[in-house]
Specification:
About 45% of the residues are buried. This protein has three domains: about 180 residues, FAD/NAD(P)-binding domain (3-Layer(bba) Sandwich), CATH 3.50.50.60; about 110 residues, no CATH class; about 90 residues. The protein is of the alpha+beta class. α1 runs parallel beside α10 and α1 runs parallel beside α14. The strands form six sheets. A six-stranded mixed beta sheet has the order 10-2-1-14-21-20, covered by helices on one side. It has a five-stranded antiparallel beta sheet with strand order 16-17-18-15-19. Strands 5-9-6 form a three-stranded antiparallel beta sheet. β20 and β21 form a beta hairpin. The chain contains 14 helices and 21 strands. The chain is globular. The two termini are about 15 Å apart.
């Protein structure tokens, strides 16, 4: 190994794998990337249907995603041009709901609560009392609590119009099942820590343009070997190192989904493999629909489900008249979803819509439940993993994936 760069295989080119590969190349490693799909990006990429290119789901970043934004800049993507930055807003089409203003975190929250439309003063004071109690406790709670149990004393309107949409968008888990401990950590670190941390960063370009495409160009320009569209058959330990199919490496980082990683490591660590397979997953569905109308804002909250939010792609650099309805933790069939979303659009937006593509990722995120045991990044010596499902303080997010990839690169090269 002396006198030559460390040979590192990264299996998977989602956001975690790309972050890992870039960090490893920057540290001087000779990197080879394997990706089973025909393109990079994993669960946040652009896919083609019969008529156009659509994202495989409507994603939102937030201002607290500092590592993701820094990685975008490092590979040549400009977040200021590619993302529309707006203060956190959970406004509904009828004008109700809460919206924060720009500025320091706590004053922005206080102003948002004070000006929440449709809320009584008793509902506002109840939220402020509860938020103050959370802060005095350091945003800590019993690890066994669900978000529903944590917020049981809050008025129904506050739960319906703030807690539930925040929980399902951040943890992609219904409040009755979601971890209160993780929810409070997200509130503390993302919403109440720094000025602008809660800002919504809404893509106004295809997801490929945010990271996957520029990262692949950067990696190719810096000497990484890219095997896109090639699924790894197996990994074996040899006297010379780790053999990935026919090639030999000093370190291997698995940046593929939990089930695929479990398949590849079963003979090396059955315990890790079983733990990865035991994760329960939640689906996210995105209904793309045509309409003659225009939303009052680029993004609006929706009541009652199944969709929690709707985005006007025409106001975000996409085709005019294209809406994207996002239904997190969806468990039904496509036809039922299309019908229910059409009813939401008619009743809450006053719009007739025609669904043109409904994309359902049944394994979009892990279910972020109380006391969840997640796999570690180190499987055995020289064989590591990265991804937003691994052990860590946060739910499944793009920022979690990026941080995990960078941490795996550091551990692999240590």
């Amino acid at each position: 190994m002396a006198g030559r760069p460390l040979r590192v295989a990264v299996v998977g080119a989602g956001w975690a794998g790309l972050a890992c590969a870039v960090a490893a190349v920057e540290a001087g490693a000779q990197v080879t990337v394997f990706e089973a799909s025909r393109g990079a990006g994993g669960r946040a990429r652009t896919v083609a249907d019969t008529t156009s290119a659509l994202d495989n789901g409507q994603h939102i970043l937030i201002g607290a995603y500092v590592d993701t934004l820094a990685l975008m800049r490092r590979v040549g993507a400009d977040p200021d041009a590619l993302l529309l930055r707006l203060p956190l807003s959970l406004r509904f089409a009828d004008g109700g709901g809460l919206a924060l203003r720009r500025g320091p975190a706590m004053p922005a929250l206080l102003h948002g609560v004070a000006t929440a439309r449709g809320w009584s003063w008793s509902e506002r004071f109840a939220l402020l009392r509860t938020a103050l109690a959370w802060r005095l406790r350091g945003f800590r709670c019993d690890a066994r609590l669900t978000v529903a149990e944590l917020c049981a004393s809050l008025p129904p309107r506050v739960i319906d119009e703030l807690i539930e949409p925040l929980c399902v968008s951040a943890l992609n888990t219904p409040i009755g099942d979601a971890s209160a401990e993780v929810f409070l950590r997200v509130l503390r670190d993302a919403l109440l820590s720094t000025s602008g941390g809660s800002d919504l960063l809404i893509p106004r370009a295809d997801l490929d343009a945010l990271l996957p495409a520029p990262a692949l160009r950067w990696l190719a320009a810096h000497g990484a070997r890219l095997n896109i569209g090639r699924r790894v058959r197996g990994i074996e330990r040899t006297d010379a190192g780790w053999q990935v199919d026919e090639a030999t490496f000093d370190r291997v980082v698995l940046a593929c989904p939990a089930g695929e990683a479990a398949r590849l490591v079963e003979t090396h660590s059955k315990r890790w493999s079983d733990q990865a397979r035991a994760l329960r997953h939640e689906a996210i569905a995105t209904v793309y629909a045509r309409t003659e109308g225009v939303l009052a804002r680029p993004m609006l909250a929706l009541r009652g489900g199944p969709a929690q939010f709707v985005f006007d792609r025409g106001q975000l650099g996409g085709p005019a008249g294209l809406l994207a309805f996002v239904a997190s933790a969806w468990q039904g069939e496509r036809e039922a979803l299309d019908a229910a979303v059409a009813a939401q659009a008619r009743e809450q937006l006053g719009l007739a819509i025609e669904p043109v593509a409904t994309l359902i990722d049944k394994r979009a995120t892990f279910a972020c439940t109380p006391g969840l045991s997640r796999p570690s990044k180190t499987i055995v010596d020289g064989l590591l993993a990265c991804g937003d499902y691994l052990e860590g303080p946060y739910p499944a997010t793009l920022e979690g994936a990026v941080r995990s990839g960078q941490a795996a690169a550091t551990a692999a090269l240590r």
